[in-house]
Amino acid sequence: MTETGMRILISTDEVRHRVTGLGLEIAAAYPDGTLYLIGVLKGACVFLADLVRAIPRPVRFDFLGTSSYGAETISAGEVKLTKDVTEDIRGAHVLVVEDVVDTGITLDFLLEHLRKREPASLRTVTLLNKQARRLRENLIDFVGFEIPNEFVVGYGMDYNEDYRDLPDIRILDGTGV
Ligand code: IMP
Ligand code: MG
């Protein structure tokens, strides 16, 4: 794929520095006990991999998968679970790990799903927060960066499965968002 039409929004160093800070914030926010980080596939994989190593306390992790119907760069408002957690999270502290929250429809759906598993607590961290088009409120406990209403790729995030491997976060121009 050509990399023209992209500009860097958040550099590799800025990401690394913020993830380190988030790790300390998260560690300070939890008492002892089992802490499960639940990454939302596939976009949050890279973030989760760095985040678990930035939290100076024991953590476990697992993954959830979702797909939303409709246009690729806009959440269509209907979310489907494509992979469930496989670990028993009842009575554990659960922290959902997202790459980016836009309308909030995906995260709202996932929280409702996970609540049924009766965790001791259920909180969320997102690397990026796009507030402009939010339709569901009070979803996010820890935020890496506030970003404008632009479609971003890199550091796990894709456009039609490309660009997940980029080490920084870039704005993809011309995607019609
Ligand atoms: P929401 O349900 O509208 O909050 O959308 C959240 C999901 O859409 C995220 O988990 C991402 O997978 C995807 N998404 C939203 N914005 C972007 C973006 O700018 N780049 C890549 N994926 C995005
Ligand atoms: Mg995602």
Please describe the topology of this protein.
Blueprint: E1 6-10, H1 12-29, E2 35-41, H2 45-54, E3 60-68, E4 79-83, E5 93-101, H3 105-115, E6 121-130, E7 142-147, E8 152-153, E9 169-172
The chain binds inosinic acid and magnesium ion.
Inosinic acid binds at residues 40, 43, 75, 98-107, 151-153, 157.
Number of strands: 9
Helicity range: 10-25%
General shape: globular
If you compute it from the alpha carbons, what radius of gyration comes out, rounded to the nearest whole angstrom?
Answer: 16 Å
Largest sheet: 6 strands, mixed
Q: Poorly predicted ranges (pLDDT <50, ≥5 residues)?
A: none
Instruction: Please report the number of helical segments.
Output: 3
Proportion of residues in extended strands: 25-35%
Strand arrangement within the widest β-sheet reads 4-3-2-5-6-7
Question: Which small compounds were modeled alongside the protein?
Answer: inosinic acid, magnesium ion
Order of helices and strands: EHEHEEEHEEEE
End-to-end span in angstroms?
20 Å
